[in-house]
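tl;dr need the bound structure. longer version: we got a ligand (iron/sulfur cluster) that a collaborator sent over and nobodys looked at where it sits. i said id run it. heres the input, straight from their email, havent touched it
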Amino acid sequence: MDIISKIEQAGLVGRGGAGFPVAKKWEAVKNAAGDKKYVVCNAAEGEPGVLKDDYILEHYADRLIDGIKIAIDFLSERRPTSTGRRTSGYLYLRHDYYKKFRKKLAALIKNSAIEIFVEPLSAGYIGGEESAVLNAIEGQRIEPRLKPPLPAVRGLWNRPTLINNAETFYNVSLAAAGGYNNKRFYTISGDCLNEGVYELADDWLIEKILRHTNNYPKFEFFLQAGGGASGEVLNAGQLARPVGGAGSIAVFSLAKHDFKKTVKNWLDFFIKESCGQCAPCREGVLRLREVLIAEKIDWNLFNELLDNLSDASLCALGASVSAPIRSLVNNVFQQVS
Ligand code: SF4
């Protein structure tokens, strides 16, 4: 069975948040015109409460490198390798992960066509967005690119580029060896007893995950599921659903976190991490913070700014500001007020 059939059989979808079928993405790059192609493994997670890349590099670096090599081989099939046109790969690593794992990775990479690229220290959260990753490797300003064209068609140095995150390459390696068993990584953090990364079935519901890991709170709480900055906020009665997104569950004690403090922390994060390229995000998040900390919140203006961020932001960072805030209002503070 070829690798695409194995990936399809395993039902692999991207683990960066969008859930796009892996096989489709790989085939799109394969079918794109170009005499040189690239593979990029994004292992520079920057979202608060997401630490799965660290866990994979610690425990399964061999699988990760194997997955990248499989992708390079797949894109190199029926392509000349003696003319310097072979497919090559980059492992895009967070700076601290490079320091932690470089010796182990160098031993695994040996003389294959994989090069480690260390994410610049200044890159921040947006440095993990896939097109910003490409800019960083090219030495351009680290900010998202306008899409289309997608990286599959025009990526690194305008060449077709396959970019997946670390968990996807890990899963591809398992699928290739017939060892993929429908698990995924969950990062649990916040007001809980057993913070950490857990590899559990990908269809488990949030409540089951919390109970299984002995993290189900004994106090009143809410949580943020999916992404640590962009995930939806849920109350204790809404946990009969899978986690989704990047697999994070951040638990918040209601006694410790009020509405204003929670939203202000999120907005401070988005203000710090915005690349400043587009006005809805650059100005909108600042204005939101002003409205939030005013003595009396102007809810019409607050909602208008959230709508604007969702509709007009250039990339997912700005577009995702509204989801946690709106769900915090709808699912938690309406209920306790
Ligand atoms: S939404 Fe924010 S992070 Fe994204 S491109 Fe615009 S300014 Fe940059």
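gonna send this back to them w/ a short note. The first helix runs from residue 3 to 10.
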